[in-house]
Structure formats: structure tokens, C-alpha cells
Amino acid sequence: MSVDVQVETVIGRPRVDVAAYAGDPSHAPEWYANIRDVSWQTEPPVAVGSRMDFVAQFLGRRLAYTYEVVDLVDGERLVMRTADGPFPMETTYTWEPAGDDATRMTLRNRGNPSGFQGLAAPLLEKAMRRATTRDLARLKALLEG
After folding, report:
1. Which pTM does this prediction carry?
2. Which of 3, 24, 31, 59 is deepest in the core (most CB within 10 A)?
3. Residue 120, pLDDT above cutoff 80
4. Would you say 2 and 112 are in contact if contact means Cβ atoms under 8 Å apart?
5. Interior CA angle at 113 toward 110 and 117, to 5°?
6. Kindly report the CA angle at 50 between 125 and 62, in degrees rounded to 5?
7. Mean pLDDT, residues 88-99 taken together
8. DSSP class per residue in 15-52
9. Is 143 helix (H, G, I), strand (E, B) or coil?
């Protein structure tokens, strides 16, 4: 069974600022509550083919995974897929104008957990939605601060 979680928020900052901050994986531990560490395998800045190792704590478990950037449209979209990790996952960020000096950011996580995680996909999806909603609220607070 797959999971597909999409949340969005409007951030009172220009799109270029939101995309530059949120689209830099080095900032992830600052606004994702569950991400503990990000280490670059390739040299920054982010580009198609960039690879980063992430360490997260989610539902009481330590998760280590590698993301690879598979699509990047500067200031508009960033797509990363797990190259290594507990289950295949794709994360997509999109940024679009939402009025004067405001940005609508959408964050989508989708994947196909296997084993026990696959059986618990509905619960996993619900937990991911709660966490992602909180993460975007944290990002909004940081950038509007």
C-alpha cells in the first residue's frame, strides 16, 4: 500500500526567498522537526544529481536514508527520491506566487512502504500528514519571523 501526503501553506515572503531557503537541504534540520542531520555526498549547491544523507527520528525510530535530486526548476520545483533508505520515497517542493511578496509552498511526500510499514500505511500516512503540516508551520514562522 502506498502513502501520498500533500500539504501547503502561504508564506509572507517572496518566492525566491522561500525557494532558496527551503530548497537548500542544509536547512532541513532547522524546520523539519524529525530531521536530525543532513550530510552532503556531493558538493553543494543543490542540483540535479545532488545526493544527501539524512538522519531522522520518526514514530520512535531512527531512519537513515539518501536522497538524490531528480528534478530542479530554480525557484519553482525541487524533486528528490530516495536512493537508499527504509522504503522508496519521493519528496516534491513547489513554490508559486500567492499575492504581493507571498509564496504558496506545497510539500508532497509519496512512497511505497514495505513489510510492517506497508501494513501500517494508513497510520503512517496520518502521522506524516501531521508532521508535515507542523513542519510547514515551523518554516512559515522562521521565514516570517
Report:
1. 0.92
2. 3
3. no
4. yes
5. 125
6. 40
7. 96
8. HHHHHHHHT-GGGHHHH-TTEEEEEESS-SS--TT-EE
9. helix
Count Cβ atoms within 10 A of the Cβ of residue 129 and give its class: 0-12 exposed, 13-18 middle, 19 or more buried. middle
Which residues, listed in sequence order, are joined to residue 5 by a DSSP beta bridge?
109
Are 125 and 104 a contacting pair, CB within 8 Å? no
Which residues have CB under 8 Å from 115's CB, separation 6+? none
Residue closest to 97 by CA, chosen among 5, 3, 12, 2: 12
pLDDT tens digits for range 16-44: 999 999 999 999 999 999 999 999 999 99
Residue 107 phi, psi (nearest 5): -125, 120
Q: Is the pLDDT of residue 56 over 80?
A: yes
